[in-house]
């Protein structure tokens, strides 16, 4: 089979999975978090998560009742997790430009049901009736940064997504959250959102999990003036960030 044919079939598979995600047809497991109840499929969720595999196997209450409660998690983060399990991507918060003339908006051809609309509105997306406002076309030749990579508040969101990926044993979720976080950190290092995200990283990950922490350390090293900010200085003093920065700066000087 030619590689082009494989690509086409993978695209068809992706569309089928998204349809299952949207419609919740044939679901055999419910994940409850806050007011949300996600109707999912064990055959899709369990192979990608050690936690869900364990919960659905054997004689655990969750597996017998086909209902898993996640009362301690952020519903927005759980929505991102469920979206990833079907689509291998993250949605994040939508960038909304201050200049209303910057983009043109079109309504989607697809009409969405009430449950999907509520779920997507929680993530900042907008609807007119039951049609999604999307397909934004940037009028300028070079898109604004936020249109291309999303708003800075996604930094903290993706830090939380990374942590929940570790919590529920979903390596792929951690990897994509880390990749998106790194892109955002380079662009938004000077924002309050980055400081809040750095705090999230250093309070939600363990010392041995270097993924997000190394990105934060590298970003601060490249923007060392951040430590002149009282909030960032306090963060460095009250978490392992200060120690990590010292070790990184010492290593860099020795190498130089």
TrEMBL record:
Q: Which residues form the BTB domain?
A: 27-87
Q: From which domain of life does this come? A: Eukaryota
- Output the Pfam families linked to this UniProt entry: BTB (PF00651)
List, alphabetically, the InterPro entries matched: BTB/POZ_dom (IPR000210), SKP1/BTB/POZ_sf (IPR011333)
What protein does this entry describe? Speckle-type POZ
- The organism's taxonomic lineage, starting at the top: Eukaryota, Fungi, Dikarya, Ascomycota, Pezizomycotina
């Amino acid at each position: 089979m030619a590689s082009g044919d494989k690509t086409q079939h993978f695209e068809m598979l992706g569309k089928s999975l998204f349809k299952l995600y949207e419609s919740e047809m044939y679901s055999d497991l419910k994940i409850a978090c806050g007011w949300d109840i996600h109707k999912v499929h064990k055959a899709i969720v369990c192979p990608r998560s050690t936690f869900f595999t364990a919960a659905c196997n054997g004689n655990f209450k969750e597996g017998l009742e086909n209902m898993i409660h996640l009362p301690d998690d952020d519903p927005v983060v759980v929505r991102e997790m469920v979206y990833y399990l079907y689509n291998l991507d993250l949605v994040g918060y939508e960038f909304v430009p201050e200049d209303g003339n910057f983009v043109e908006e079109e309504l989607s051809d697809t009409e969405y049901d009430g449950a999907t609309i509520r779920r997507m509105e929680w993530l900042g997306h907008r609807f007119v009736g039951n049609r999604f406002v999307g397909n934004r076309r940037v009028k300028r030749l070079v898109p604004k940064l936020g249109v291309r990579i999303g708003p800075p508040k996604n930094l903290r969101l993706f830090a939380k997504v990374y942590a929940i990926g570790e919590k529920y044993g979903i390596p792929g979720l951690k990897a994509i959250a880390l990749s998106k976080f790194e892109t955002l950190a380079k662009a938004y290092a000077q924002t309050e959102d980055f400081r809040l995200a750095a705090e999230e990283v250093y309070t939600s990950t363990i010392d041995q999990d270097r993924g997000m922490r190394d990105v934060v350390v590298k970003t601060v090293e490249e923007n060392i003036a951040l430590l002149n900010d009282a909030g960032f200085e306090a963060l460095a003093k009250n978490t392992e960030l200060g120690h990590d920065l010292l070790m990184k700066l010492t290593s860099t000087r020795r190498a130089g």
